[in-house]
Amino acid sequence: MMEALRTASSLEELKKEPWRLQIQADTTAEQLRGLVLKNYHVFIRSNQCAAVVKGELHELKEQTTEIMREIPELKEFSTHTQEETAQIVTKHGDIQFVFDHYLQLTELLEIPQLLEACIHNELFDSALDVIQFAKETFEDNSKVSNVVIQALVREVTQMTGVLREKLLQKLREDLQLALCVRIVSFLRRLDALTDGSGHVGSIDHERQLKEEFLSCRSAWLASLTRTITTNDPYQYTVQLIDVKRTSWFDMITQYSAIFGNETVDGKVDPPLCRWATSTVADFIQILMKQLPKIDDFSSLATILEQSLFFGGSLGRVGVDFRAILVVYFEDHIVELLASSWQTACRDFKANLSLHALGGGGSTMSATPIVLASYRNSMNGNGSGTASPFQPRVPSNDEDVSPPRVLMSFPLLAEFTNALLTSFNDLRLCTLASLNSRLAGRLHQTLATLVLCVHEFCVKNSLLVDQDGAKSSKAASLHDAVSDMNEVIASDLLPYVARCFQRLFPSVNIRSSSLAALNVLALLELMRERQLLRPVDANET
Length: 540
Prior knowledge:
The protein is an all-alpha fold. The chain has helices at residues 2-8, 11-38, 40-100, 102-109, 111-120, 124-139, 147-171, 177-194, 203-225, 233-259, 270-290, 297-314, 322-353, 372-380, 410-428, 435-460, 472-503, 507-516, 519-528; strands at residues 263-264, 267-268. One of its GO terms (biological process) is protein transport.
């Protein structure tokens, strides 16, 4: 443009141009001065605004600096907020997952309650299915640290223990064989589900299962006997034997059906042997407490018969304990008979002592030693003097009736009746093994009888070699005692020995009883004690 203006203008014009431009500049400056003067307040306001802006900029700078200092914290807070937001999103996803699988999760949460209901209603098969389902479901998540899963596993484990105790409690009840087999199979299956070491199926596990079975069934057996009243020892013992015989046989049959008759390490079922030994020992302890309370031989015979039948019936399952039972019955029978025989000896001694010479009391009320009819018959036969002992052999071995001569000697008759009564009692429960012991006791009893007579004769000077001058009363007593001694030797001792041998008719037993019950030894004792006249060699 300047180039065009310069080209279009003349030289003169160009020379005047600076002056014209100066005038224009002065005019412009004057106009500017006028504007300044006219609008001076604008500059004041502008200056004030500049000061305000400068102050605000300074303040803005300070705030900006403070904001810069807070930015790291804000950044950290934003990061935390972002993380929380992510967690909330994750939880929301989990909640949504739970909501989407609500029915399935509800079924899992109800497993403990379902298991408890099955146990309460004795649905053991269903309970085992629930336990197996829970194990398969939670086994893969066993390492997951989930509170709900851990709680479910803990509750299922607790209910598993309750189920096992419930099964053992059922074994303590009255059960048939089929139900016993089912319960033991449930126990095996339950142990297989809960065992993680492979112990199930081993010998140790089978032994433990047998011991638990025997322990529970023993508790059932004990509950049966607790209902029996103990007021009457005989009735209590008979009922106890009947209950135990039936229940023991059933129990051993159940045991054999469930576990078989296997041998372990060469031994025949050690748990069953231990149980049988302990149970038989307990039964014998009860029997030992009750037998002393029973003194009636008919009742004792019934108990003996029932006990031997009890032991024999269990012999079919290998638990025959009759040999042990016999020992305790033998002791009690021997004690009863010995007591009866001792009483007979005491009564004989007491009645005989009433006839002592110089006694304070009258002999009128005492049982006579010999009846007057016997003395008269002896005098009538011209045998007033007692003859030496001549053994009287019965004409018939089957004749066990008492010698009639004993009826003439009331003291001997009472003693014989006491022995015969005890023999009749013994006949009810005769045990072959008692022969030797009872023969020895009977020999002692008869020897005691002889010694009682000897003591009476010594006190009253009535021995055979003391038949000198005596008063009529002493002579009469001497004759009566001499006659009694002759009858003891010739009739009483052989008769008692024959009756005792009839209780044990076997030839072998008879020979052993003769060794213990020796009549000849008793006769020799009477001669030694000067109760009989010595036998001359010519008379033998």
